[in-house]
Amino acid sequence: MALAEDHDDGTEAIEAVSFIPLSDPDITSAELSAVEALLCSPRVSNGPITDVFEKAFAAYLGRKYAVAVPSGTIGLLLALKALGVGPGQEVIASPYSFRETVHAISLVGARAVFADVDYWSGALAPAKVEERVTANTRAIIGGNPNGHPAPWSELRAIAQHHQLPLLEDSTEAIGSRYKGELVGRFGDIAVFDFAQPLALTCGEGGMVVTDDIDLAVGLRRHRAHRLDERSSVVISSAAPHQAGMSDLTAALGLAQLRRLEEILERRRLAEQLYNAHMQSFEGIKPPYVAPDATGVNWFLYLVHLGTRFTRSSRDAIVDDLRIEQVEAAAYCHPLHLQRHYFDLGYRHGDFQVTEKIADRALALPFHTHLTSDHIEFIVETVKDASINIGAGAAIY
User: What is the pTM of this model?
Assistant: First the structure.
């Protein structure tokens, strides 16, 4: 890949630029120092740093309890176990997701009952959720897809009407706000993930938050026993998953949390650059933001191609970008079309909105190390690729 650079004499030179990855963690000397200090300490697991991280994360969100876990998927699994969800029960969830935390439903033996999504935001459509509630429904899981908040007021009303717990999948949305409040504050339990390409990343890991002390105790019992419990009778109360977070991961996460607003602001700058360059592209609009989404921190820069684009033309654009040393991806392969859920009886056409937007959703590089030149090159390459495949400029 090469970018044009103007010389003082008016000539144009070509500057070679390396591969542009889909994501690139924002790591500074603060994170390096935190990890180095931990590595020089006598404890890299089962130590105090994880507790500090949990308390700091709970304080950031304004929630009472936070439980550190190895991943968002494990976090949701433990949340379902703490709620007593198991075989023969149903959990309503979205089939439109990049992160497959929904697999936790199957891991506890329950059945994922999918509901279709809103065409614009990609979040669960409340009316579709209402239609899927049955006598076997045990919980509702709402997500904030690609960082965009779900309609939490409506989802909460449905959950309360049917006396169901509401779980919040915020694995893609740290720092986003719904009606002025941070995501992670709307579910009885909320789950976060810290793997790349999240804004707060510590390699792997996640966090489960709640205000219910009984749920918090249940989460910890199913996660792992503490060292001081090894000789206690409480070890017989549950068979834990040994799903704790190491202090090494927590030290990196804590350093990232302390810099989170700085990281998010730098990502917002990249978003503004994308939006500016997208204005010259007739066939693509910047990501949609609903009126109640008072702050959106994107997981990736996601654009929806025009209605004349197909799934194959979207994939061709991804291939063209790869040739130009730019990493891009389809945001989502609908869960109900994956083999595991296909075997449960789901078929193509079951959730037409999900399939329609998933076929044309294109995730572009999004991280703090992108420059204006990078973003201009990416957008121009997408534009050229769309012309090459012969797609028109119809939007949505």
Answer: 0.91
